[in-house]
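Hello forum,

I keep getting stuck at the same step: I have a sequence, I want structure tokens, and every attempt I make locally crashes halfway through. Rather than fight my setup again tonight, could one of you with a working pipeline run this one for me? It's a single chain of 328 residues.
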Amino acid sequence: MPGLDKIVVITKKSALEELIERFNTRDQARFYIEHMGGSFEWYESAHQAYVNAVATLRKAMPREVRSHWIERSFLPTFTFGPNDLIVTLGPDGLVVNTAKYLQEQPLLAFNPDPERIDGVLSAFPLDGSASTLLAALSFQILIRPITMAQATLNDGRSILAVNDLFIGQKTHVSARYVLSHAQREETQSSSGIIVSTGAGSTGWYRSILAGAVGVVRSVLNDASIDRARSRYQFDPESERLIFNVREPFVSRTTTADVVHGEITPETPLVLTSQMPRNGVIFSDGVEEDYLPFNSGSIANIGIAQRKLMLISGLPQSQPTPEHLVERR
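Reply #2:
Ran it on my machine without issues. Output:
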């Protein structure tokens, strides 16, 4: 088994840095926020917490191993090595953004600011980060192979998702397509389709389910349906995805019978675009990074062969082969 010979750390701009980029100076950013009734001190304190986190992680870096630091915006053009240990310092969104550019290198996610960031995926605190890094470099770790979704077009292009895929119109007006799933097919018009992974089931899928339950409960005046509200979460490692059609419209030419279903290796979702323009497929909420999905395009939505190899913890006892996941 090859060893890990380099640490690549992914950072992000703070909200304050993005504000200063937008308004050119710190004073102009302050004026705008305070003029709108906001608290500029919140941005300053969050920025300082992140600066302190970066300094802590830099100090924890093992001197005998090479390290490389990049900001999130450089991810699309950066080439990761096969023996890199990937480290993210930021919220769960940074983990999601990074994962799509990896080839199953192990990813270690630190939470830079537990007071502001829940950190479902970014589970590691910076306290003890030096020993955590050494354990990761020597594979004394537990790894969760997180299932990802993949959309592949008939021209060979594809896109990955850790949390969810959106298929629809760029402008969020009605999308038109033919949906095929589990030997059922129908022409639909809707505001788009959401495909969720287990990792993303606590996000967009949960919101869709909560909204659907609320509408049906109100229409039927039946509180018993509320129990469906809690049935959103499923295992991030499971080999399945869930799709939901948003706001399907029934007309003379469109139907809405297949609006929810499970995608497995045996039952992929196939979509044929009927949109002359502005059809898109994007992942994990990043609208700028998308596949065009216009008339003539056929998308096969299924489970990606690639996994997010997320470091989830350290063994409680002396590691044995059963405790470790080895990259070969």
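The chain is about 25% helix and 30% strand. If your local run keeps crashing, start a new thread with the error log.
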